[in-house]
From TrEMBL:
Residues 2-169 form the N-acetyltransferase domain. This is Cyclic nucleotide-binding domain protein. Keywords: Acyltransferase, Transferase. Gene3D superfamilies: 3.40.630.30, Jelly Rolls. The keyword Manganese does not apply.
């Protein structure tokens, strides 16, 4: 008979052995191998450790834990994780029993429970879903397993958590599809408001940067006092928890100075073993250093700290901060309703991830309820790979001349990268005019109904824009003359872009008119020479 009980100090060696059997020597939390670390966790008030024991043989066949207080003090957030079953105990429902026991032990102490399930197999995802947890995101390459492994994020709400949730979060367009899926998965109506014209914090670079030393802690503490009213970044640590706790959590701060005066600071923690980082606090004198601090930290993570994954929990009520992180290479990877307790209510959080390693989603094994969210994040990561190419096109193609840096970023994020294979027919007469292309490389020839070439679309020229705007179908054919790439907009994406950003639409239509006039002039000259 399998009995679930709280772990005792004497179970530490057996628990360590279970992790060795399950993961070899490569588990991404090495403290679960160390006997003394396990004993401290077992005896800690901030952790619940359970074991599954065969009462007939007194053999421990499984273990699971809950880490309490993974958010800030009073957030009432806990992480369910580290569930391991011995091969001899599989098939006996031990995983389900451990999960059920964990929920029963801690549900009265929580408002929000989260699980970061491995994505290499569906076992833990299925158990989480069966016990009331819902998929809300995919954390790409979060775990240091093999070439890195992603985590399927699941969440469960307890007690009065959802009753205390603040309604109507304000989101940038890139976050909304993920938020809609996550809210619906948690049986909530999607009440989010889309900010049609989000603006990031202003770009300023005239700051000196310095890492916080011990003697600067009191200075930063005084600086922070009274300057945080509406938090936009959330995390487990905060400056006022004390220097000792900051050091114990490997927390650091980058300080921004202007003319020798401190004007801002960003707090973050680095796990050197996992090669991951997390931003947990941002404080500033005014708006000016915010963009700079985020950008500086991303650069240091890439060049100095050598980490592969950086995340931040951003308020769902701060589209300006969401846009700032988006422009600095972060993507929305999870949306957690009612995650943070702030004053008298709970706020939704957007978990944004900056991936500094190569993404390969081929190894994902996602349980069916979370597949739609995983696909959405996977598509965003695919766009991230193409974004530098798209940005370069936006900066050089005449169709986009006159766009500001922020407008360029917005346009590039609305497009896809398409490969053009030589000889491929992109469209024929009477095909729906539902795509607009800007040629990045290669050439496309335009043919009439008699298959005679009447023109050639070259690098940085647009294809299909006029038909897509004015007509439901094409009147000519387009065939790839030489292999290359194109920047692709669907008709719906372009219409949405123009609708939400009329400032961009005005520039695009003006440039398109100039480009069309040039093409017509070129065709007239060609026809004139042909007649002669």
């Amino acid at each position: 008979m399998i009995e679930i009980r709280r772990a005792r100090e004497t179970d530490a060696e057996v628990i360590s052995e279970l992790f060795h059997i399950a993961y070899g020597d490569d588990y991404f939390y090495p403290q679960y191998y160390d006997i003394q670390s396990l004993k401290r966790l077992i005896l800690s008030d901030d952790a619940l450790f359970l074991v599954a024991e065969d009462s007939d043989t007194s053999t421990v066949l499984g273990t699971a834990s809950v880490l309490l207080e993974v958010g800030a003090h009073a957030d009432l957030v806990a992480e369910f994780g580290r569930l391991v079953v011995h091969p001899q105990g599989r098939g006996q429902g031990i995983g389900k029993k451990l999960m059920q026991a964990r929920v029963e032990f801690v549900q009265d102490r929580l408002h929000v429970g989260v699980v970061e399930n491995r994505s290499a197999h569906e076992f833990s995802q299925r158990i989480s879903h069966q016990h009331g947890f819902h998929p809300v995101g995919l954390l790409p390459n979060k775990f240091q397993l093999g070439d890195r492994e992603s985590a399927a994020l699941y969440v469960c709400h307890f007690g009065h958590a959802l009753e205390l949730r603040r309604n109507h979060p304000h989101l940038i367009p890139e976050v909304y599809p993920l938020a809609k899926l996550a809210l619906e998965n948690c049986q909530l109506n999607c009440d989010a408001i889309i900010e049609a014209e989000p603006r990031a914090y202003p770009h300023f670079h005239q700051f000196e940067i310095q890492e916080m030393e011990s003697e600067l802690y009191p200075v930063l503490l005084r600086f922070e006092r009274g300057r945080i009213k509406q938090r936009e970044i959330f995390g487990r640590m905060r400056l006022h928890y004390g220097l000792f706790q900051l050091r114990a959590s490997h927390a650091q701060y980058l300080l921004a100075y202007r003319d020798g005066v401190m004007v801002g600071a960003i707090g973050f923690s680095i796990d050197e073993h996992e090669r991951t980082g997390k931003i947990f606090e941002l404080v500033s004198l005014d708006d000016s250093p915010i963009y700079f601090l985020v950008s500086e930290l991303v650069q240091r993570c890439r060049e100095e700290y050598s980490i592969d994954y950086l995340e931040a929990d951003v308020s769902a009520f701060s589209p300006q901060m969401q846009q700032t992180f988006l422009e600095n290479g972060f993507l929305p990877a999870a949306y957690i309703p009612a995650m943070i307790f702030h004053e008298v209510e709970r706020l939704d959080v957007v978990r944004m991830v900056c991936l500094l390693s190569i993404w390969n989603g081929d190894a994902l094994q996602v349980f069916e309820p979370g597949k739609t969210i995983a696909d959405l994040v996977d598509q965003s990561l695919g766009l991230r790979t193409a974004l530098p190419i798209l940005m370069q096109t936006v900066k050089t193609a005449p169709l986009f001349a006159g766009l500001s840096a922020e407008q360029q970023q917005y346009v590039a994020a609305s497009a896809e990268l398409e490969t053009l294979e030589e000889g491929h027919v992109l469209f024929r007469p009477d095909d729906p005019a539902d795509k607009i292309r800007v040629i990045i490389s290669g050439e496309v020839e335009i043919q009439n109904c008699h298959r005679k070439t009447v023109g050639t679309i070259c690098v940085h020229e647009s294809l299909g824009a006029l038909a897509s705007v004015s007509e439901p179908s094409h009147r000519v054919s387009a065939r790839v003359k030489s292999q290359g790439q194109a920047m692709l907009f669907s008709r719906d994406a372009l219409q949405q872009l123009v609708h939400t950003r009329p400032d961009i639409g005005m520039i695009l239509f003006r440039n398109h008119a100039c480009e069309l006039a040039e093409k017509l002039q070129r065709m007239n000259v060609h026809a004139l020479f042909k007649q002669k």
